[in-house]
């Protein structure tokens, strides 16, 4: 039933802006799905969710959810902890290719995410998640036992395939088991798990590296992945459409190999640009041009010829979903730039050790975690998400602006306290950005949309690191004292190779170098202010659409205990 609007202007249905292009799915089929929003109180829901999202969920659901949280924790911990262990790894193998340890993981995890979603639809959620856990564990074992940097890079590539699959499958399984109206709470918890793992990752990596035990950073993944594997194997009994092997193979999108090649080439160019090679060099331009061209050809072939495309073109025609994907990409940029380069600030500008730098970023990470949970719970209860996206982007924009005030000689309290506002905004966005993507869609479209959501976020994270690295490299080349630059003989990766040398410098050179780093990082923060501002503007055109209480029955738990009884009763009516 449509919500009644009083004769005053106090409650208005907010339409989407006509300046954006219209698509086939612009208007929701159910006109009552467009919520009436109280303009005097943007947080007031028209029809709050009345049932407890945690109620009536059986033991099977909670054990599966524990496995999902554990898997996300593993992936996030490994992604962030490696950064502080890299110097020890490079020193042991006496290799200059240490930058590929991080790049190889990002490359494979991002490029293969869309295909992971395709495999999950064909071969089932459990098989795909189990395969991802196995690949992650195998990659961890290879890196832990590596005898050369080549073996480390190969292991990290395999880890990336598994890690990307874990993140994608975690979100798809939650979509399968929990209706959108309740999903914010569960995504909020997973987002907080990610934030906590990201916070403790650098100190753990630095501590193990300092003790000469960096290999245990990877070995410890194996038993934890094993526990998650057993839980998924025993308890994730999700229904799936019954098809023969021949039918499964016929549904495979083999053209996706073209996309993987294009995405890989693009990510290589982004990773090298401004760091390993100048942006105008052929080493960067060739893979970038080739990658974007190949991905463009792939999109054309997918739309024209593929019956079961990997890229969900049908869901991209709704403006709110399209805006959701765009803001997810921007959130990927700013969130990883915040975590990655705040650590650089503490090490380079404040002289902190890798372990201490990781601890100093707790003010950011442990702000993100609770806000992620709170936002998910509140959105689930109120049923609106536009206001929370606007507030999230507003706080993030303001937070980056305040963070840009940090100097190399600012107080400890200032350097730890100023990024908190940024953390508040990022925490809200961790839980709120998926709702605009999913709310306009049918339950059967949402798992496919989540796979593309994961890809856009991961692709944005690659951009975030690349943009920051380029700014840092170019700014340092202009700001660092000439006598300090002379020590590196034009080395491409001066931004990161210079940090360990700062502590050995005599005054006043040491302070000059730290000031140069702080000034260069300020340019990154201001760039993120602009990107966050774009996110805020886009969020203005998002439409609040009623959050459904349905899930795709083809993929539910076999005993139906994953869905609260109140929802089942409502659906049966």
From TrEMBL:
Bilayer disposition of the protein: Multi-pass membrane protein
NADP as UniProt keyword: no
Compartment list: Membrane
Organism of provenance: Microbotryum intermedium
Protein origin, superkingdom: Eukaryota
Protein name, UniProt field: BQ2448_490 protein
Alphabetized UniProt keyword annotations: Membrane, Transmembrane, Transmembrane helix
Transmembrane segments: 62-86, 98-116, 128-146, 158-178, 185-204, 216-236, 257-274, 280-301, 322-342, 362-381, 388-408, 420-439, 451-472, 523-542
One annotated GO molecular function: transmembrane transporter activity
Entry GO terms, CC: plasma membrane
Domain Major facilitator superfamily (MFS) profile: 64-547
């Amino acid at each position: 039933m449509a919500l009644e609007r009083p004769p005053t202007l106090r409650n208005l249905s907010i339409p989407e802006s006509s300046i954006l292009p219209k698509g086939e799915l612009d208007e929701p089929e159910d006109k009552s799905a467009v919520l009436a929003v109280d303009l005097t109180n943007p947080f007031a829901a028209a029809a709050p969710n009345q049932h407890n999202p945690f109620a009536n969920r059986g033991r099977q659901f909670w054990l599966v959810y524990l496995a999902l949280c554990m898997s996300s924790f593993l992936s996030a911990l490994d992604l962030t902890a490696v950064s502080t262990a890299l110097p020890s790894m490079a020193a042991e193998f006496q290799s200059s290719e240490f930058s590929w340890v991080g790049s190889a993981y990002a490359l494979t995890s991002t490029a293969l995410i869309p295909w992971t979603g395709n495999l999950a639809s064909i071969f089932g959620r459990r098989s795909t998640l189990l395969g991802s856990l196995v690949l992650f564990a195998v990659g961890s074992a290879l890196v832990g036992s590596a005898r050369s940097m080549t073996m480390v890079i190969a292991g990290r590539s395999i880890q990336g395939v598994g890690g990307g699959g874990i993140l994608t499958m975690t979100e798809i399984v939650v979509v399968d088991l929990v209706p959108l109206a309740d999903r914010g709470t569960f995504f909020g918890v997973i987002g907080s798990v990610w934030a906590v793992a990201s916070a403790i990752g650098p100190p753990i990596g630095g501590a193990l590296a300092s003790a000469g035990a960096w290999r245990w950073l990877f070995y410890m993944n194996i038993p934890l992945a094993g526990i998650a594997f057993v839980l998924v194997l025993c308890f994730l009994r999700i229904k799936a459409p019954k098809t023969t092997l021949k039918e499964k193979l016929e549904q495979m999108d083999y053209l996706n190999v073209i996309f993987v090649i294009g995405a890989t080439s693009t990510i290589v160019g982004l990773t090298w640009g401004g760091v390993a090679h100048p942006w105008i060099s052929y080493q960067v331009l060739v893979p970038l041009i080739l990658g974007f061209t190949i991905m463009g050809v792939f999109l054309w072939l997918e739309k024209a010829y593929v019956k079961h495309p990997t890229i969900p073109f049908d869901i991209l025609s709704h403006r709110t979903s399209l805006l959701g994907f765009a803001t997810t990409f921007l959130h990927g940029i700013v969130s990883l730039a915040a975590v990655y380069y705040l650590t650089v600030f503490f090490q380079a500008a404040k002289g902190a050790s890798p372990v201490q730098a990781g601890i100093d970023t707790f003010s950011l990470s442990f702000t993100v975690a609770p806000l992620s949970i709170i936002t998910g719970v509140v959105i689930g209860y109120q049923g609106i998400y536009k206001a929370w996206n606007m507030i999230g982007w507003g706080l993030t924009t303001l937070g980056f602006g305040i963070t840009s005030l940090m100097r190399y000689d600012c107080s400890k309290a200032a350097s730890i306290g100023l990024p908190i506002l940024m953390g508040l905004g990022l925490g809200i966005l961790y839980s709120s950005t998926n709702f605009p993507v999913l709310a306009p869609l049918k339950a059967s479209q949402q798992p496919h949309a989540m796979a593309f959501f994961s890809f856009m976020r991961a692709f944005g994270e690659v951009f975030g690191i690349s943009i920051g690295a380029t700014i840092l490299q170019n700014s340092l080349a202009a700001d660092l004292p000439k006598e300090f630059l002379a020590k590196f003989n034009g080395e491409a990766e001066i931004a990161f190779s210079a940090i360990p040398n700062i502590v050995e410098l005599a005054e006043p050179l040491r302070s000059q170098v730290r000031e140069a780093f702080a000034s260069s990082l300020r340019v990154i923060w201001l760039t993120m202010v602009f990107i966050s501002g774009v996110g805020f503007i886009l969020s203005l055109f998002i439409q609040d659409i009623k959050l459904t209480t349905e899930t795709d029955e083809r993929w539910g738990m076999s005993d139906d205990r994953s869905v609260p009884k109140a929802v089942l009763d409502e659906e049966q009516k």
